[in-house]
Amino acid sequence: MKTTLSLLFCLALTCQAKNMNRVLLTDAATSKGAVCLDGSPSGYFIRNGTGRNTDKWILHQMGGGWCFNETDCYSRSKTYLGSSKFYPAALSFSGFLSDSQDVNPDFYDWNIVFIIYCDGASFAGYMEEPIMVNNTPIYFRGFNILKAVLDDLLEKGMKNANEVILTGCSAGGLATYVHADFVQSYLPSGIKYRAMADAGYFLDIPDVDGVRSFYLAMNAVFKLQNVSGGLNEDCMTAMAQGEEWKCIFAPYSFPYIKSPMFVLNSLYDTAQLAGILKLPCLPPNCTDKEMKFFYEFEHEFLSQAKPVLKSKSTGIFLDSCLIHCQTLTDKPWSSYAVGGQTMRETFADWYFERPSGKGQEVDCEWPCNPTCPGKARHPLDKAFAGLDKGEETLF
User: Fold this and answer.
1) Tens digit of pLDDT for each residue in 267-312?
2) I need a surface site. Which of 12, 110, 140, 376 has the fewest CB within 10 A?
3) Are 193 and 184 in contact (CB under 8 A)?
4) Catalytic residue among 83, 99, 152, 324, which?
């Protein structure tokens, strides 16, 4: 399984960079209850910064979907998405986490942390007692995991940080919206802090059959793992009684986020097209009726993103590529472009507040963008979704 996991990450992230070393929080598992679904200790991978940027940190929250019921979480606990037992001692990463100056010229020498995702609720859940499934204890401790990782990193030098960027992809992108303000509150005051959410702007929309299946699924996560204590406090306070679940969705929680945000997403997010809209195809292999749903999704995305688009301080990169996560591989990060500049350049312009730069870019309708890949794989394709049974995930 460890070999399979290493291969999965290498296929997705191209294993050419320096390794990041695994850290398992065995003490925190006991003292802070920071454990994965199966009770194994949580952890992270880290690569130390070099040169003049040793006081700068990138914290990446891993993605990997959610578990929606007890049986689902039990199954997940037997995989790398619910246990730390399957992770090798070291992994390498690319894109925004790359140590290559050519690929990642502005951030290649920062401290890089990749937080292992093994709780199934975007690091937001907390139940003091485990539930029993098939005579096996299953733990919901995602919020404890996040706090334990931050505590450990502060002890290992992040307390002296001058700059910190919180990021994440997919379920980790959602976690970036959810935890942006909380993480800032955990860090030393006065530092430069920003958050970049990749593919985490999941919509609350009905599927092609008119069923709000994703709302039902995420509401189940909200209740099952008791995530109310791990969501944005201002959002939770603002919601009417019985509607607190909305704060697990980025479109509802974004207006309450105080931390400076950079929103990076495809307007045709393939995971959402498959998993939320339940569109059974991707262009050019869709019928006219299916293409109508395809373009309506983009229109709805822009509608639900109005708070983002109206914000003059928020960084924006919304492309029309048929893709889900984009920051963890070299090509999207350094070559997909909107308005004549790549996402890498757009984020750097926003982050460094470059006077001549552009920190907000919104693409035209598909298939207008020549920098996008010519062919996309549907997320329901097993070859795309996962290598082992039990590891398949749309997000």
Assistant:
1) 999 999 999 999 999 999 999 999 999 999 999 999 999 999 999 9
2) 12
3) yes
4) 324
68 close to 224: Cβ distance less than 8 angstroms: yes
* Active-site entry in 72, 269, 319, 349: 269
Q: Residue 17: pLDDT band by 50, 70, 90 thresholds?
A: low
Is 271:257 a contact under the CB 8 Å cutoff?
no
CB 145 within 8 A of CB 83: no
pLDDT in the model for residue 375: 61
Of these residues, 40, 75, 92, 170, which one is catalytic? 170
Strand, helix or coil for residue 27: helix
Active-site annotation holds for 170? yes
The two tokens of residue 274 are 């498959």
pLDDT in tens, 231-276: 999 999 999 999 999 999 999 999 999 999 999 999 999 999 999 9
**β-strands 360-362, 315-319: how paired?**
parallel
Pairwise CA distance, residues 114 & 43, whole Å: 9
pLDDT digits 0-9 by tens, 134-171 = 999 999 999 999 999 999 999 999 999 999 999 999 99
The encoded tokens of residue 98 equal: 């790359």
DSSP-H helix ranges across the chain? 2-13, 26-31, 70-76, 142-155, 171-186, 213-224, 233-238, 250-253, 270-275, 288-304, 306-310, 330-335, 343-351, 382-385
Calculate what percentage of the chain has a pLDDT beyond 70.
Answer: 90
* Side-chain half-sphere CA neighbours of 178 within 13 A: 31
Whether pLDDT at 388 is above 50? no
Helices 142-155 and 171-186, packing angle to 10 deg = 50
